Amino acid sequence: MASRVPIFVVVAGVAASVAGAQPDIPPQNDAPNPYVTVFDWAELPAGREWGSTGGVDMDPDGRHLWVAERCGANNCTGSDLDPILKFTLDGTLVASFGRGLLVQPHGLHVDGDGAVWVTDSLGHVVLKFDPDGNLLLTLGKPGVGVAGRDTLDQPCDVVTAADGTIFISDGHEGQAPDAGPQTTARVVTFAPDGTYLYEWGSHGGGPGQFRTPHAIDLDSRGRVVVADRGNDRLQVFGADGGFIEEFYQYSRPSGLHIADDDTVFVADSASSRNGQHPGWEFGIRIGNLRDGSLTAFIGGSNPEGVAVAPDGTVYGAVVAYGGALLKYEPAEDR
């Protein structure tokens, strides 16, 4: 990996963090890029084109990639296409499922047993499938967008802990111009069987508040890391929801992948697009959560979802501009 570059870290106790005000950090666009972007590498069936592609994750076998794709458009309403796709790492489609079950697939997580979890932001549910596409669990009520104990409101992403606890980042409208205190902006936890446990968060810019908790992942210590996109930061919590620290140097985060050594891959799909976070470029920023470092920046594309294969290849799921599935190969391997 490239050498470390100086970076700012904001942790609990710093005045800006306590006040919920974004610190004045200069744009971080100059870290080296040790990757080569590969386009058009994954093959869809004849006649099918990529649509908005929100979620991506590796299969536990390390040899396959799962993708949530919106049926050649930005949602699957009225489509007879399967939105959940499984590829080999050379781009061959080997399985698909989910037709008629999802409105707008958003986040995707594959747990240690190979179960595929998908958030449906417009359908207001999180679905758990086995690898063959059999539906195992539904969290939320289809079509009911309410932040309740048994209902969800535009869920963004999902991750599961080693003990099976389910963490869902809920509420996609936090960046809307009319968003206010009533706007859903929370993390909800469920037991492995789907029983509601507890939740935290509200709409705003302070610690433990969100303006769209767009992605969620767990670090090596089981801490919950949330991509608080509308506030241009990552927030880190204990598994009980207690605020620990926050990082602003990864820009406007849409997607997260955290490796076993706490290397973090942050997909920024929105900076410098439509006037959002001006001066910062979209791309994938790579660093480490243990020290807040930023070591690399893959510019030139704007994925929302990000995953990393065992060989170090990075994959990006693109929602904007029609959608795509991109591959970023380490330049040293080319």
| Overall mean confidence score, pLDDT | 93
Oligomer state equals single chain
Strand content: 35-45%
Shape: globular
How many helices? The count is 1
Which structural class best describes the helix and strand composition? Answer: mainly beta
- Note poorly predicted spans: 1-19
Helix proportion of residues, in percent? under 10%
**How many angstroms does the end-to-end distance come to?**
15 Å
C-alpha Rg (nearest Å)? 18 Å
Main sheet makeup: 5 strands, antiparallel
Mind explaining what this structure looks like?
With 334 residues, the chain is mainly beta. It is 1% helix and 40% strand. It is built from 1 helix and 27 strands. It has a 5-stranded antiparallel β-sheet with strand order 1-20-19-18-17, with no helix packed on it. A hairpin with a 4-residue loop joins strand 21 (255-258) and strand 22 (263-268). Mean pLDDT is 93; it is low at 1-19.
Task: Give a concise summary.
By secondary structure, the chain is mostly beta strands. The chain has one helix at residues 15-19; strands at 10-11, 35-38, 53-58, 64-69, 84-88, 93-97, 105-110, 116-120, 125-129, 135-139, 155-160, 166-170, 186-190, 196-200, 202-203, 209-210, 213-218, 224-228, 233-237, 243-247, 255-258, 263-268, 283-288, 293-299, 305-308, 314-318, 324-330.
Looking at this protein, list some descriptive labels.
five-stranded antiparallel sheet, 334 residues, single chain, disordered N terminus, four-stranded antiparallel sheet, mainly beta
